[in-house]
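Please produce the structure of this protein holding SN-glycerol-3-phosphate.
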Amino acid sequence: MKFFLDSAILSEIETVYKAGICDGITMNPSLVKKAVDEAKAKGEKMSLETYLKKALKIAKGTPVSLEVTELNAKGMIEQGKKLFKKFNPVAKNVYIKIPINPSFPNEKEKEFDGLIAIKTLRKAKIPVNCTLIFTPEQALAAAKAGANFVSPFAGRIDDLLRTESKMKFEKTDYFPSGGIEDDGDMLNDNGIVSGIDLISECVQIFRNYGIKSEVLAASLRNARQVRECALEGADIATMPFGVFKELFSHKLTESGIVQFDKDTPKEFGKLV
Ligand code: G3P
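Below is the modeled complex.
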């Protein structure tokens, strides 16, 4: 399974690539805003364009998803093409991120716009990551339209199930992949019992039909979910920097290091 960093913060991008464990980057408007705000707070003067170009160079050889902000097919296609033209020459690694459906609640006429944008950009040979996927049917539709990556959001499904059942929780709390029973009923969103269940069903369906699009598990909040994505056969897991750190942490590793440090004979340091 490939690991992607879900962040636009340059220092985080640099660190995970230096450690040799990052296979790509995903960004969205909220993550870019977070990175820009942090850079401004530190007094950094870099323009957004320079900033993104730096990120692309660090990630050279691995995909970087840049999301459109327009909300209809025409706008997303134009913006996607312009973004690709401007940024892909930097390191030849740009994927354009398109929401499966850009319509606001109760707005019907834009329902197909995400799919039209995917189809058109793919026809123009621009790689696409389809985002904001919450059902296996959406994943299948995105794949049919030609998306290279399809991004189901696991954590937000868990949030929805907990919120609807009025459970108290922290964003990073583990949600059992097999679901949670409440008053004898399994919490579910139209049959999906957890974020990992969503990932698992997308993987299964793509396998059933030999679909080439890759399942990019997104909105992951803890290392255990990353493990479960790997067990379910997700192609890619994108995660925030904090979850990357959790991947190599354990309390016994820490106590083991403390003990080894304490036991090291003084002579050992003089050996080399
Ligand atoms: O990759 C999708 C991600 O940025 C959303 O994560 O934690 O805001 O649901 P989250």
